[in-house]
Amino acid sequence: MTPIEILHLHHLTRSACREGILRIMLEAHQALSENEIKCSLQSEFDRTTFYRSFKVLIEKNIIHKIILDNNKIKYAISHGHFNAHSRAHFYCNHCKKVLCIPDFKMGQYQIPNGYDILDTEVILRGNCEQCKSNKS
Amino acid sequence: MTPIEILHLHHLTRSACREGILRIMLEAHQALSENEIKCSLQSEFDRTTFYRSFKVLIEKNIIHKIILDNNKIKYAISHGHFNAHSRAHFYCNHCKKVLCIPDFKMGQYQIPNGYDILDTEVILRGNCEQCKSNKS
DNA sequence: TTTTAATTTGCAACATTGTTGCAGATATCT
DNA sequence: AGATATCTGCAACAATGTTGCAAATTAAAA
Lengths: 136, 136
Known about the structure:
The structure is a homodimer.
Chain A: H1 3-9, H2 16-27, H3 34-40, H4 47-59, E1 63-67, E2 73-77, E3 86-92, E4 98-100, E5 104-105, E6 108-109, E7 116-127, H5 129-135
Parallel strand pairs in A: 3-7
Antiparallel strand pairs in A: 1-2, 3-4
The structure holds a DNA duplex.
């Protein structure tokens, strides 16, 4: 699917910034930070415009946000295999790469009585194959 | 354990800010934000001092940081039942309360071949019992 | 196609979370 | 008590995000 098709499908106006973000994100097969997206784009956009685009794309569940615990944020395409209610991502401690984990079985959590879980987010941290080999 | 005992056990200097943070966090039986801790403390500390205290306490795994996806951050005591490598927390969408989930069984994730997972972080989002009842 | 209406964009300002360097105040150790 | 290590406050800065307003762009209607 092209950026324009995606926007049309979700009844979103076709704007330069949204198209650009989607194009870059579809090309990259991993999650990207605001800065990585900005650098990959030819045309420049104000940061405000970026955040407004991210916001609507997230609301429509076209992309989603991943928060790593070093205060770094990345964004990734929510492909069909992702439902909006449970996500898992892998984060490489070494090269900082972030990948979506499409299929997984959720763990079992003992939440207090009467509590309802609506959605879940999992971050798996470790080393990717490349980084593991480079270190030896 | 008292704040002083905890600090001593981890070979940390007994400083006013560290003691204060630990005292408040031991009293609260939930995760707290920087602001919630600051308001509960009598004595005032510079924000820098706070963050430096958080940093050492996190390094020693006495407390840990929880990042919610609305850019809000909370800190919680890492009780013994928490190992440093896998954590789960519950977040109430309504009252914003955060609880640690002590015992749980991790899910199964299909990570690419050759990748190593060193630690995991899980956020379960939903409604706590109080908020669920209040809404009806 | 031209006009009108709705959206998007850029700028300025501000908020939160966090870090670094430096000097002065506290705590620890002998 | 004095020497040394550590902590604290201040100023400055960085990353991430939001809001209000006016100008530009896109979409819809005539």
